[in-house]
Amino acid sequence: MKKTAYLSILVLLVTNITSYAARNANQQPATFINAVFNHHPPKAKAIWLNKTLKQQIADILQHPYHGFRIHYWQQQGKTLWILDEIGKEKPITIGIIIQRHKITRLRVLAFRESRGWEVRQRFFTSQFNQVALKKDHQLDTPIDNISGATLSVRAITKLARVALLLDQSI
Amino acid sequence: MKSVSICNLKKYNRKKTSPRNHYFKTPLLTAISATLLSLSLNPAAFAVTDEEFRQLQDQFNQLADEVENNKRAPASNNTHIGGYGELHYNNLNNGKGDAKKQLDLHRFVLFLGHDFNDKTRFFSELEVEHANTEENGVVEVEQAYVQFDLNNHTRLNAGVILVPVGIINETHEPPAFYGVERNPVEKYIIPTTWSGGGVMLSGHYSNGFSYDVALHSGLKTDITKNNGTDIRGGRQGISEAEANNLAATARAKYTGFRGLELAATVQYQDNITQNHSNNVNSATLIETHARYNINHFTLTGLYARWDINGDGASSLQRNIQDGAYLEAAYKITPNVGIFARQNQWDNGGTGDTRKTQTNAGINYWPNENIVVKADYQAQNETAGNFDGFNLGIGYQF
């Protein structure tokens, strides 16, 4: 049994190491933007953050936001936001599409944390579909946590709230 | 045709001038300012063309880019630090005059990580338990591994790794779990926190399945204590650890259904005494757990069992050691959660050896990374009959 177990591990290692060079992680934001707007994306706009908006974003993130503005893309009543936030150690980059102040799609474009990869999966991101922002800047639908990925779930939920807030502010 | 007030531009520039831009404060700048001021007195000078407006917009954006990039610079550093810790107060009594009233800085942990590039990184965890080493504390490296991304869904960890088993063993930051003390089933059966030196391959698939396969340093139980069947005492740490017998661990996990986690781990080691005894030899650990999270409810169940081979284990009736717990938790608000947990475990031996412990309590998160905890504990006679309450504060960053 011992030899079989060791051999199985060795086979798995070898087969996976051979695919080391074939790594194709994460979707580039530009690719996502192109796909959303059928390869004819509008020119990026920027929302400049006034003091109130900056404070509201800081309240959601629970830390200050240091930028002056946030870029977005807008076409035919649809806005697209590319935002990132640290989960535990590394920034998670997500793309969010909003129509009529509701999220129509949320996609994790880059996940760099060592744990919590489950947040990239559709079963998690689909929870955000048709979610809107309440007056207290909380989402109007609870987002189910994933065991072992609490910080990543939290970061993505915050970004969804920020995107909806920004969408309301333009 | 659009127009923009030059006075507004001047106001913007004045606001954004930082000490780093002291070189602007020159006679030349004074002369330019004076010229602009005199021009501003002439209403005709207020108007700019669309082209000029676009140029000014571009200049603004370039300036903002530059400042924002400068602000981001420290965060983009490739070396990361973090940590967690927890202070506990136990007020327990067994009704026989034995009281356990103590304050304990149970854990003080520092993380240090470094990204070598996009697909190779280092992660470490240095832990001080019980504040110092003069009494019963320890300082140890709990994790120190290099992680390679093999492809989009496969990673290889090499170094000191946490054994992929149970719930608490890998995710044990205080704000992440209920109860002041970690649950006794994972502590005395699995036994968490359990790390080993070796390699681990981890992969996940879009359907929600994931796996971990690890080959790592195994247990080295003390053959003078219960014939070498003391599993928890057999954790070696990675200080010249004996590697006559490595352990192989495999875990499969399913998280493809919203809110659900199902996992099972199997571990095998040929001789848990590192060949110091044939009286106790191979051992197999099986662990499985389920957690379901819906809205504000979380229900968790875990079962773990060791099967130890050898006459030395069976003669002491310590060849099977197992335990289970069931926990229900409810978040009253985003900052307050309550829980109840029933634990039962048995490390074997003669007579009635089945231990039980009930916990119920509350977690309060004043900040998402800080938790204040209180819980009530009741044990049966076999477990020590220590009843009472625990208080704790924990943090992570």
Nutshell version of this structure?
The complex is a heterodimer of chains A (170) and B (397). With 170 residues, chain A is of the alpha+beta class. Helices cover 35% and strands 22% of the residues of chain A.
Q: Could you describe the 3D structure shown?
A:
The complex is a heterodimer of chains A (170) and B (397). With 170 residues, chain A is an alpha+beta fold. Chain A contains 5 helices and 5 strands; from the N terminus they run H-H-E-H-E-E-E-E-H-H. Chain A has a 5-stranded antiparallel beta sheet with strand order 1-2-3-4-5, sandwiched between helices. In chain A, helix 3 packs antiparallel against helix 5 (150-169). In chain A, 32% of the residues are buried. Residues 17-24 of chain A have low confidence and may be disordered. Chain B has 397 residues and is mainly beta. Chain B has 2 domains: 6-72, no CATH class; 80-396, Porin, CATH 2.40.160.10. Chain B has helices at residues 6-16, 27-40, 50-72, 184-188, 311-315; strands at 79-93, 99-117, 120-129, 138-151, 154-162, 195-204, 209-217, 246-254, 260-269, 283-294, 297-308, 320-333, 336-346, 355-367, 370-379, 387-396. Classes of the chains: A alpha+beta (170), B mainly beta (397). At the A-B interface, helix 1 and helix 4 of A face helix 3, strand 2, strand 4, strand 5 and strand 6 of B.
Fold topology:
The complex is a heterodimer of chains A (170) and B (397).
Chain A: H1 2-17, H2 29-36, E1 45-48, H3 51-61, E2 69-75, E3 78-86, E4 91-99, E5 102-110, H4 122-125, H5 150-169
Antiparallel strand pairs in A: 1-2, 2-3, 3-4, 4-5
Chain B: H1 6-16, H2 27-40, H3 50-72, E1 79-93, E2 99-117, E3 120-129, E4 138-151, E5 154-162, H4 184-188, E6 195-204, E7 209-217, E8 246-254, E9 260-269, E10 283-294, E11 297-308, H5 311-315, E12 320-333, E13 336-346, E14 355-367, E15 370-379, E16 387-396
Antiparallel strand pairs in B: 1-2, 1-16, 2-3, 3-4, 4-5, 5-6, 6-7, 7-8, 8-9, 9-10, 10-11, 11-12, 12-13, 13-14, 14-15, 15-16
